TrEMBL record:
<dbReference type="GO" id="GO:0046872">
    <property type="term" value="F:metal ion binding"/>
</dbReference>
<dbReference type="InterPro" id="IPR023214">
    <property type="entry name" value="HAD_sf"/>
</dbReference>
<feature type="active site" description="Proton donor">
    <location>
        <position position="34"/>
    </location>
</feature>
<dbReference type="InterPro" id="IPR006357">
    <property type="entry name" value="HAD-SF_hydro_IIA"/>
</dbReference>
<comment type="similarity">
    <text>Belongs to the HAD-like hydrolase superfamily.</text>
</comment>
<feature type="binding site">
    <location>
        <position position="34"/>
    </location>
    <ligand>
        <name>Mg(2+)</name>
    </ligand>
</feature>
<feature type="binding site">
    <location>
        <position position="204"/>
    </location>
    <ligand>
        <name>substrate</name>
    </ligand>
</feature>
<keyword id="KW-0460">Magnesium</keyword>
<keyword id="KW-0479">Metal-binding</keyword>
<dbReference type="GO" id="GO:0005737">
    <property type="term" value="C:cytoplasm"/>
</dbReference>
<protein>
    <submittedName>
        <fullName>Sugar phosphatase of HAD superfamily</fullName>
    </submittedName>
</protein>
<dbReference type="Pfam" id="PF13242">
    <property type="entry name" value="Hydrolase_like"/>
</dbReference>
<dbReference type="InterPro" id="IPR036412">
    <property type="entry name" value="HAD-like_sf"/>
</dbReference>
<dbReference type="GO" id="GO:0016791">
    <property type="term" value="F:phosphatase activity"/>
</dbReference>
<feature type="binding site">
    <location>
        <position position="32"/>
    </location>
    <ligand>
        <name>Mg(2+)</name>
    </ligand>
</feature>
<feature type="active site" description="Nucleophile">
    <location>
        <position position="32"/>
    </location>
</feature>
<dbReference type="Pfam" id="PF13344">
    <property type="entry name" value="Hydrolase_6"/>
</dbReference>
Amino acid sequence: MDNANQNLSEPYAELKEGAKERIKNCELFILDIDGTFYLSGKPFEGSRKFVDALGRLGKKLVFLTNNSNRTIESYINEFEEMGIKLGRNQIVTAGVATAEYLLEEFGPKRVYIVGTDDIKYEFQRVGHTVVEEDPEVVVVTFDKTLTYEKIKKATQFVSKGALFVVTNPDLNCPSSEGPLPDAGAIASAVRKASGVYPNIIFGKPEPKLIEMVIRHNNVGKNEACMVGDRLYTDILAGIQAGTWTVLVLTGEANMEQVQKSPIKPHLIAKDIGVLADILLGGI
């Protein structure tokens, strides 16, 4: 990650003319968490500055993560320990959003979840029945408690016709230890073993999550900015939702990847502390 930062000679780079001023005028900032705000629970230098800057300027902040193994309450408690108080409506996770989407589209279902107890609780909370046998839906999440038995069951259930749902397409999740296998990697094992492709893949880069956040905050898409560290999820999701986008170099992406990728953010910043300086008019 340090090497990525060194590849950007200035604190930020504007890839679309006028993007800096348009982003300064945005009313809603939608932030990825892992690799953007913190790594393995440790905030980056400048993260608190960014939150304080939005507060001073009266702008809205929503954290949007593809992490699908935790409850909303666990995030609220974690941020509170950092001295940052958030409301439930300021945290949107792919796991919880998937549960709510399935309920809205199909009604309450019998669901087998490849996931932690926390995400099982969230599915039950919104109205689904979490089961170990004969499910109507199989949901694959980012599961740090993954076992062979879980993959075996998921494979057999989707082979028999259960709806195959993946909360997010990420192949890995950044951590201080290095990349961790994420929902996309786990779902790939189920897909290859069963010969069945997922029916629904939720989370970024699908624009549904961002569109939902924009709608709930009563702003236009041109008044919203998606900030993240991954081109193929965070930035692509913002582009597909029609928002402004900022790529930070504290997580997965680096300048070499930006140069090679067809997915281009409107602005690149070394970290969200730099973005705070931009919003406050310091640079």
